[in-house]
Structures are given as C-alpha cells and as structure tokens.
Amino acid sequence: MATKLKKETASDLESLKEFKKLHIAIVVAEWNSSITYAMMNGAIDFLIAKGVKEKNIEVHKVPGAFELPLGSQYCAEKKNIDAVIALGCIIQGETRHFDFICDACAKGIMNVSLTYNLPVAFGVLTTENEKQAKERSGGKLGNKGVEAAEAVLKMLLIRNSTI
After folding, report:
1. Has 97 been annotated as catalytic?
2. Which of 49, 74, 92, 107 falls 20 to 30 Å from 17 in CA-CA distance?
C-alpha cells in the first residue's frame, strides 16, 4: 500500500503566480463528516498556501460518496472551474455495500475527469475502520485532502504545459 510508504503529507510543489487565477471546486461527502471535513480543510489550506485565492475555491456538499461523481460533474460543467477535488470516506462494513460504493465512486469520478478533460482528484478514503480513516485525514499518515489538492494543481501544470 502506498500510504505505508508515505507517513506524512509533504509537497515539493511551489507556490506559483498562475495558481492565483485558478477556480477550484471541492465536492465533499457529508457522510463520515468528521473525516471528510478534515480532508476538506486540509485541501483548502493547501490551495491557499500555494496561491489559489480563497474566493476562487467553491465547496459543495453531497450526501455521501455515491453522490460524489454527479456533484463533480455539476462542477465540471461550469465554465469557470479549472479542477475538481472529490472528497469522501467509505468505511468497510459487514456487507458488500462497501465494494459497490467504492467501485461506483471511483469509476464515476474517473469518467467525469475524462469526459470533461479536467483534473478531478479522487480524494476518497476506502478504509477498513474509522481509525485508519482518521490516520489519513490529518493523522499520522497525512491528509489525503491535501494530497488530492496537490494532485489537481500538478495536473493543471501538466495540462497548461502541453497546450
């Protein structure tokens, strides 16, 4: 697992002037909100630290991880959005529901990214228990919201360098 290799959230991405003009949407699941909101706050703090203006960061809440793809699509359809960060947390339960939600969420988010040719970060935790989720939302294993924010900025740099 990649998270065992990276015990902290560190970034080599510099703050750049071109980030000031970006408009980023964050779509966050309300389910497991103590986890997802910690990821959201980490993502917002990271974006601002790298130069994205706070007023250019939109936050949209959806009920759960299953709704993240459609929420992301709504944002991707807006003309002024440069990237979307989808944040959620799915914790394994006793039934196969976990598998279906994880699969649908991952495929849906990927489809939005490819359909709209926009970076859409998959900041969705798929953990076995709440402890693992907390460790990945600001705990000892970093903050996956920060990592998702970094991913969209890096993808925008790639897109802008290839045009």
Report:
1. yes
2. 74
